[in-house]
Design goal:
Blueprint lengths: L1 E6 L2 H13 L4 E4 L1 H6 L8 E5 L4 H10 L7
Antiparallel strand pairs: 1-3, 2-3
């Protein structure tokens, strides 16, 4: 698994998840509950992980829709 996205904004995470589902790319979200608990403090961001084989396609989908991906 490779980190695709790191955000404290749950709307960005939901949008990214929907984009990936539309591309038939499975993702796994880490730290969702703790991020929601601490709100917008940016202490515990939501991390979205994808398979390494899907990373290139996933990052293109994110960038095409204005979402910055993790390096």
């Amino acid at each position: 698994m490779k980190e695709l996205l790191r955000t404290s904004d749950p709307t960005v995470a939901a949008f990214a998840k929907a984009l990936l589902a539309g591309e038939d790319i499975m993702c796994f979200e880490l730290d969702v509950n703790i991020s929601n608990l601490y709100g917008g403090l940016d202490v515990f961001p939501i991390r979205m992980m994808v398979r390494e084989d899907d990373y290139a396609r996933a990052s293109i989908a994110m960038r095409d829709n204005g979402i910055e991906v993790s390096p």
